[in-house]
Amino acid sequence: MKKFYIISGLAVFVTAFTMCHKAGVFADSGYDDRMSGGAATVLDASSKAFGNRVDGLSARDESVHITGDATFSQTFVAPPSPIFTGLGPVYNNISCVNCHRNDAEGIPTAGFSNSGLLCRLSLPGQDSLGGPLAIPGFGTQLQDQAVIGASPEANVVITYTDLPVTYPDGTTVTLRSPSYTLKNPYTPLPGNYLLSPRLAPPLVGMGLLENIPEATILSFVDAGDANGDGITGKANYVYDSYTKRKELGRFGLKANTPTLLTQVAAAYQQDMGVTSYVNPEESALGQPQMSVIHGDTQPELADSLLNYVVYYVKTLAVPARRNVKDTVNLRGAALFNQVNCSGCHRPTIQTGVDLTLGPISNQRIHPYTDLLVHDMGEGLADNRPDYLATGSEWRTAPLWGIGLLSIANGTSYYLHDGRARTIEEAILWHGGEAANARQKFMQLGSSDRAALLQFLSSL
Ligand code: HEC
Ligand code: HEC
After folding, report:
1. Which ligand does the CA of 265 lie closest to?
2. Distance from the CA of 201 to the center of ligand 1, in angstroms?
3. How far apart are CA 387 and CA 195, in angstroms?
4. What's the CA gap between 453 and 120, in Å, rounded?
5. pLDDT higher than 80, residue 11
6. What local confidence, expressed as pLDDT, does residue 82 receive?
């Protein structure tokens, strides 16, 4: 913990220099709309595009990022191993990178080492903090893997059925509609459980999203739909396990986590079974805890390592847009606004001032999200509330970098559970507050639809 603040303190001096330096670049050359992440943008369209650090870190901060990167890729093992220990007793995967492949998204399978899908679980109702109601013996997340001597909480079985959708012009696209069942629970599972499958999302620009002022996000809410576009949006307020307060949710697919610190600590605890100073309790509820068996009461993860991984994620750069002057892309961008995709996927936002980290401070960014949750209709509903987000509400997915996902990840899947295999399929799943936008998209001619899709591929 202490180390983290010392590093941040040092960064202030570096930042003063970096900010002047970057400001100069933009003043001279005018605004450059390739710069999706402002000064935190990187010109890289390769398979490593999602794994770059922001420019302008001090040598010291760079080394923190690099150690965080190594820890992010580190495989954890079960106790009593002396290093990178604490995996399990139950978990979903053995490293961050196994789910967030190349800092991008995982694969929507279950039960395999490369599976980036996990299932949140709960009972109907709310706990005393307004969050999902834990299932005795299971908690609020299903861990489908276990170390030797423990049992997976249950196995997840995913099946897909075809769902054809036909455009007014006669073109048909076949969506795949998923269904999830749990098999072999280690202890009886109540029949009325609620299940929310979620695929690991890309991690670019996380520090920028954390640095958007709360007032900016709240200004996007249109609770009474004053402008009559059918889009309202809602801020999710969630319990922060570190500050012990309700905070605005920004991370997670229902904006169910307030900060990168709590997100990363929860990933160690829930996804890997590794405890830390933020989350000192094991996630396993009904099974023996290895660290307790071995008489160790310290958190399994060193404080410094948790902070380094948080810093790593916070300082991941956003890849620059490609072909921004291409006439088809320009037409696609106009159509994106015309059919009001931009009503949720906000093209431009200004980040707040952060004196400790110049590249994310006061930047004009293009995240294509409002960080609000929206009702997306029955088709996408998981029917599992998460704090204020209802069973049909999801956080607007940021679209920056989306055109590079297939290159960065090897394969590309879209939407909260990876059901969509193409960007077009993802759009066709939109409903609820996005029903108007979907309908207007479907009514476009095929060359306009292609232009809009080509624009999205340039992000
Ligand atoms: C089992 C797969 C899995 C593992 C392992 C995993 N994640 Fe994730 N990650 C996810 C999923 C799924 C989400 C979305 C969670 C939600 O909606 O609540 C997520 C969300 C995130 C987010 C927020 C992204 C956003 O857009 O809001 C960050 C940051 C993150 N993970 C970092 C990490 C780090 C760091 C580690 C390692 C300590 C890690 N993750 C391990 C699957 C995984
Ligand atoms: C009412 C708000 C809203 C509108 C309007 C909207 N979207 Fe979305 N979009 C979302 C939300 C929320 C998600 C995440 C849904 C999920 O994961 O189930 C999303 C997801 C996506 C994704 C998948 C991103 C990923 O990484 O998985 C794409 C692509 C997308 N939207 C494009 C569009 C386009 C193009 C339009 C206009 C035709 C549009 N959206 C209109 C809210 C909206």
Report:
1. 1
2. 7
3. 15
4. 32
5. no
6. 83
Spatial separation of the C-alpha atoms in residues 333 and 347, rounded to whole Å: 10
195 near 180, Cβ under 8 Å?
yes
Q: How far apart are the first and last CA of the chain?
A: 36
Looking at residue 337, its amino acid is: N
Say what the pLDDT of residue 409 is. 86
pLDDT digit string, tens, across residues 170-185: 999 999 999 999 999 9
For residues 403 and 137, what is the distance between their CA atoms, to the nearest angstrom? 41
Angle at 50 between CA 45 and CA 52, to 5 degrees: 95
Determine contact, residues 143/91, Cβ cutoff 8 Å: yes
User: How far is 270 from 88, CA to CA, in rounded Å?
Assistant: 9
CA dist 52 → 57, 248, 255, 385 (Å)? 12, 28, 24, 35
Q: How far is the CA of 396 from the centre of ligand 2 (A)?
A: 6
Q: Model confidence over 89-125: pLDDT tens digits?
A: 999 999 999 999 988 888 888 777 778 999 999 999 9
Q: Which long-range contacts (CB under 8 A, 24 or more apart) does 162-169 make?
A: 165/428, 167/442, 167/446, 167/449, 168/442, 168/443, 169/445, 169/446
Question: Is 350:362 a contact under the CB 8 Å cutoff?
Answer: yes
Atom number of ligand 2 nearest to Cα 441: 38
Measuring CA to CA, which residue among 407, 443, 406 is closest to residue 421? 406
Residue in the block written with tokens 């799943």: 429
Ligand 2 centre from 344 Cα, in Å?
A: 8
Q: Kindly list the protein residues whose Cβ atom lies closer than 6 A to any atom of ligand 1.
A: 72, 92-93, 96, 99-100, 106, 116, 118, 198-201, 203, 206, 251-253, 256, 260, 263-264, 267-268, 271-272, 309, 313
pLDDT at 31: 64
Q: Which of 222, 253, 427, 440 to mutate to test the pocket of ligand 2 (most atoms within 8 A of CB)?
A: 427
- pLDDT greater than 70 at residue 1: no
Higher-confidence position of 421 and 29:
421
Kindly tell me if the per-residue pLDDT of 446 is higher than 80: yes
The encoded tokens of residue 99 equal 């789910």
Environment class of 166 (CB within 10 Å of its CB; exposed 0-12, middle 13-18, buried 19+): exposed
Q: In whole angstroms, what is the distance from residue 363 CA to residue 401 CA?
A: 17
Q: Are 247 and 377 in contact (CB under 8 A)?
A: no
Write down the residue that tokens 């990022």 correspond to. 65
